[in-house]
Description:
It is a single chain. This protein is about 40% helix and about 25% strand. By secondary structure, the protein is of the alpha+beta class. The protein folds into 3 domains: about 15-155, PAS domain (Beta-Lactamase, 2-Layer Sandwich), CATH 3.30.450.20; about 155-225; about 225-374, Heat Shock Protein 90. Strands 2-1-5-4-3 form a 5-stranded antiparallel sheet. It has a 5-stranded mixed sheet with strand order 7-9-10-12-11.
Amino acid sequence: MTETLPTSYLPAERASAAELARQAGKLPRTEVSFEALDSLQSFCMVLNRFRQVVHINKSFLAFLKEYGMEGLVGKRPGDLFGCLHASQTPGGCGTTDFCRRCGSAVALGEALRGRDALKECRILSRRSGEDLDLRVSVHPFAYGGEEFILMSVDDISAEKRREALERLLFKDLLETAGSVRGLVDLLVEERAGDPLAQATAAAAGRLLERIFSQKELDAAERGELFLRITGASAAGLLSDVAAAAGEGEEANGKKIVVAGDRQDVELRTDKALVTRVLGHLVKNALEAERTGATITLTSRATQEGAAFIVRNPAVMPEEARLQVFQRSFSSKGPGRGLGTYGVRLFTEKYLHGKVSFTSGTGGTEFRAEIPAEI
């Protein structure tokens, strides 16, 4: 081991070349665990207690094709990814002030204390000149009386770029659609009773709602959706949903009925989110039906809160029944079908309820159960 070096975060010391060679040779390359590492597309490496590479999997080797295996043993993660800060101090990767905010270094610090960790980090690579967004997972383990760290790294740069573009796109779309809606509302005021103006206003309203709905779903998938808890009644929610759905183009020539025997239940929940869940269910039911069909909405009191039920006469095809709630499936073509997926996501992850369906003789019924209080 080299002499003690100054550090601003993790220990700077490294193993000697002889110790690295011994550790690299000690790890059995023929064991199933190492064969499994080589089969993974994630970048995987085994580090010693000095955070130096003693084994690296095939996927990472392919990424670092300008290096040979001998050149990789002994390096630290920042060296491999070409981190701009890895060469700024004698101690190297993990020892600068910048490393205190690096997700990779923080995760390795946890591993040195015997704990698993999952972090994200951003690296400015001196090799490519681009920012790298990485998701890092570490797991400490012992082998042959020595401590090692299994580290896996996934490049999430494309995912982060997409998220940033989506946020910007949603912002621009909502601002533009909001402006259009405002102008159309003025047109409606000036041309009271004009069917074309009223139809344009309705279309602008649907456009704004659909953009906001997709933005909300995107936030929910990222775990960034915040709830606004207020009081609400089951009967009131059904009435609001039926009225809103009746104005949509999917409802043309069809009836939406709120059952007279519905049971009212007082809830403490996110009223807007429950309304969105029920709206998705009603919209899907309307899209599945022909002109003249009736969609029935009702509610029932349960031990936990309320069950909202949406019924329509049509029976779902087997292909659809077997793939309901899956994100990528749609009976309406590519890029669609987020309705039931969104219902499950909102209901189970955010409203702490559950959703189910049946489809057979007598029609199709979706049931969303919402607790009395969340």
